[in-house]
Write a structure and sequence with these properties.
The structure is a homodimer of 340-residue chains.
Chain A (H helix, E strand, L loop, with lengths): L5 E7 L12 H14 L3 E4 L19 H11 L4 E6 L6 H10 L3 E7 L7 H9 L3 E7 L6 H14 L3 E5 L7 H14 L4 E4 L7 H10 L4 E4 L13 H11 L7 H12 L11 H9 L5 H12 L3 H10 L8 H19 L1
Parallel strand pairs in A: 1-2, 1-8, 2-3, 3-4, 4-5, 5-6, 6-7, 7-8
Helix pairs in contact in A: 1-2, 1-9, 5-6, 6-7, 8-9, 10-12, 11-12, 11-13, 12-13
GO molecular function (chains A, B): 2-isopropylmalate synthase activity; 4-hydroxy-2-oxovalerate aldolase activity; manganese ion binding
Enzyme class (chains A, B): lyase
Keywords (chains A, B): Aromatic hydrocarbons catabolism, Lyase, Manganese, Metal-binding
Chain lengths: 340, 340
């Protein structure tokens, strides 16, 4: 196994969730520069919910997409800078602006059953000359057959890579293997895998994906990311090197960046607490994490109860308003119970 | 897969490393009681280095083995209480005392190539009527053939179970599979697996071990343990349930115990920092973690450099004195370099 694996680090995009999108442009530039010097292939940046994510709905980021892209593209010499685009949140206009500012990769993300809505975004991204990645989120909610169906759409629109995205950290290695193997069989483009660590298997799942032929994998320094966080880049790279894969990364520099540049900027350690674990177990969206905590406090209910109920209702990204509904309903149910 | 897996929780033994062995007997009793009510099969307690570990060499624990055993055995109703015995640290006398105080399981641990020294301890443990577990530590240092050879010795002495113990957190899932599969093939007793999370795969490795037929696995609440810690019990059980295994554990109670009883007592979050990662990558003993940090501070050298050098020298448990030697040599080498 001497295959070169393409590493995307998402400390500065998925990791933004854990600092409420408050990295400053100069902090981003410092971290991006360290990642660049560590040999990471792709550095994803911006608001946790992608281009134009800065809003009342998703929380305002410290700076604008433009400010972040300018700061980062100015210091990154070797890596490609990526942006995330969730159709419905970001627009084609945002994508054009990002490309003009120096983004070289667009990751166009939809719910696992909604690839249709990515058509114009993927096509535009290709026209802009960007490396274009299709991101099928909440991949645990559908089996291999349906995922293949959706991934084929993205391939037909021109995507260069398609990712199995375990947004809720709800997959186990066998589930990852089945999905990646099916895509490898059915598609002619490289397959990627994006892990979350809610069930403690972010790195284990990443190894499983690689064993089935995935060649693009994601991580973040110190594991920073929504919910229980991502595969921890420096740990993942160590594991990959030990398993015989080539990443092109300098492990010592990654370790240094994680410990001395990123860790001091974290507002909390990236652990698997009860809410994050239930997210993985209940299979709901990792970015619901903080929303559920806040709603639980507001309505005086158990955040775990909210998340388990959301899982039952198969709530997906974009339906964050239901978090409040569920919290309110649970608080009512509790009051009725108390009265009775 | 409806097989019953035997869960051993080591929060109160391996986890003792992370609080410098300072849990009080009443804290131990509180945590043990919560574990007992959660349905865990075996609760391992005591100094991190086992019976009689409390010493200048390994650090003094808050209380004695006797005080811990009395406090815990008094409150545990369903689970079996286990002690760890490292021949050379603990003695037969300690084992007899533990059995009299209510321990029902002895885990007799040796370096992976040193099963010979466990003969009288395993035989005595059996005579005392204890469930007797052979623990082959630093299992990454030898391949399946040699591990089978050593495990067969433990089986011949009367061990009821033999564990593949990844003390340094240096194995990846494939390495775990190969070792567990070889033992399953060669032995007539159940096989166990004890993970450390230095490469981020404690839960992933545990699932790999189970897939190859291991039926005993270990964890600790919040992952508390030497180095990067163990498989996080509540996360591991969630993953096992999701994978279709029966553990007999109540996941909600485990989550509650982790978050509300254990987490407030932790002196640091159990994360994979640079030293822990290098431990897994360099393949040296997880309990070297704090020793190396202290030696590094004392001699003004890089803790990573100490650990990588220890890995090269294949230093094992009991050779902790070499940590100081290496730190001292590195400090000399640096001075010479500075002078030149």
């Amino acid at each position: 196994m001497t295959q070169k694996i393409t590493i995307t680090d998402s400390t500065l995009r998925d990791g933004m969730h854990t600092v409420r999108h408050q990295f400053t442009p100069s902090e981003m530039a410092e971290i991006a520069s360290a990642l660049d010097q560590s040999g990471v292939d792709i550095i994803e940046i911006g608001h946790g919910d992608g281009l134009a994510g800065s809003s009342y709905q998703y929380g305002f980021s410290f700076a604008s997409d433009e400010e972040y892209l300018k700061a980062v593209c100015h210091v990154v010499k070797q890596a490609k800078v990526a942006v995330l685009l969730l159709p419905g949140i970001g627009t084609l206009k945002d994508l054009h602006a990002a490309a003009e500012l120096g983004a070289k990769v667009a990751r166009v993300a939809t719910h696992v059953t909604e690839a249709d809505i990515s058509e114009q975004h993927i096509k535009s991204s290709k026209q802009l000359g960007l490396l274009t990645v299709g991101f099928l989120m909440m991949a645990h909610m559908e089996g291999p057959e349906r995922i293949v169906e959706e991934a084929k759409k993205m391939e037909s629109y021109g995507a260069d890579v398609v990712y199995v995205t375990d947004s809720a950290g709800a997959l186990l290695p066998d589930g990852v293997r089945a999905r990646v193997a099916a895509l490898r069989e059915a598609l002619n483009i490289p397959i990627g895998f994006h892990a979350h660590n809610n069930l403690g298997v972010a790195v284990g799942n990443t190894l499983a994906a690689l064993a089935e032929g995935a060649t693009y994998v994601d991580g973040s320094l110190r594991g920073m990311g929504a919910g229980a966080g991502n595969a921890q880049t420096e740990v993942m790279v160590a594991a990959l090197h030990k398993a015989g894969y080539q990443t092109g990364c300098d492990l010592n520099q990654l370790i240094h960046a994680a410990e001395h540049i990123v860790a001091p900027k974290m507002s909390r350690p990236q652990i698997i607490d009860s809410v994050a674990l239930i997210l993985g177990y209940a299979g709901v969206y990792s970015s619901f994490f903080l929303h559920a905590k806040r709603a639980a406090e507001k309505f005086g209910v158990d955040p775990l109860a909210i998340l388990v109920e959301l899982g039952k209702r198969r709530v997906v990204g974009g339906q964050e308003d239901q978090i409040i509904d569920v919290a309110y309903e649970l608080s009512l149910a509790r009051k009725e119970k108390t009265v009775v």
